[in-house]
Amino acid sequence: MQLIMSPTSPYVRKVRVMIREADLTDVIEEIEVSTTAYAPDTKAVSANPLGKIPTLLRSDGPAIYDSRNITRFLDDYANANLYPASRLWEILTLEATADGIKDATVSMAYEVRLRPETEQSRDWIEAQWVKAARAIDTISERWMSHLQGPLNMGQIATACALSYVDLRHDARNWRDGHAALADWHAAFCERPSMAETAPA
Question: What Pfam family does this protein match (any one) (predicted)?
Answer without folding.
Answer: GST_N_2
